[in-house]
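Hi R.,

Here's the chain you asked about this morning:
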Amino acid sequence: MPRPLWSGAISFGLVTIPVKLLSATEDRSVRFHQVHTEDLGRVRVRKYCETEDREVSAAEIGKGYEVSKDTLVAVTDEELEQMPLPTAKAIEIVAFVPAASIDPVRLSGDSYFLKYDGQVAAKPYALIARALARNTKVAVAKLAWHGRERLVLLRVRDGALVAHVLKWDDEVRDPSELAPKDITVTDSEIDEALLLVDSMTADDISGYQDEYRKALEAVIEAKAEGRQPPEPSTEADEPGGQVVDLMAALQESVRKAQAARDGDAGDAEVHEMPKKTATTRKTAGKASAKKTAKKKTAAKKPGRGQRGA
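And the predicted structure, written out as tokens:
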């Protein structure tokens, strides 16, 4: 486990649990240095004072807030630490809410494990963890850390408490203007989309890997050993921006997903999407409805041209 990033206590009601905060994830991305392309010399970022026209050390650097143009207010670390916040050294639980009520867009991506601090904290830590594990609720708490107060969600993972940092209400933008307007989607198209969802349903998301990072590491390894990097794939790119028959595309997607799930993905054929004529477009809704009705009465014997693998 990594070193603790913060220490304090979980507080709810009259219960106080000393804890330490540890990062729950790690960044495995490949990092690059900036270099001079002529001789691969390192290009470094230097801290420079505009007023004195000189480079300054880390010990000389502090925090300043721009109140208005050309006006800065200095704020010291001591002033930040002494702010009268009840959450300065505590994760104060303010409510327990249904887990389903938390909009995933509010999750910032920062997750931390909470480790109980000392044997005296073991029992109350286990108590709240097991209480959360027995229902569908999660704890919502406040935490002051790194120069700001944060809203966090507390839940249980393998018996341990996990804190997920949440966005505040005013940090989430309104997406309503992004939704398509005046678009007609038929029940048949929705039914076919649901079939595709069912065909692609998995128990969890384990097993997926970062293919980009693996390919990048292969390129770096080859260059470090003086070899040519791997050749790019010769497979043709998927055509984009084409208008296709939505229902036919859904049905083809269902067929391919079912074939892949049955282990026949390698033998599956790819058919070109049929182009609709003006007459076909007028009768598409009725034809799709009839196909859906047939599927419901013959779920295990899909008809020709429909979703059989």
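The mean pLDDT is 80.

Let me know if you need anything else.
M.
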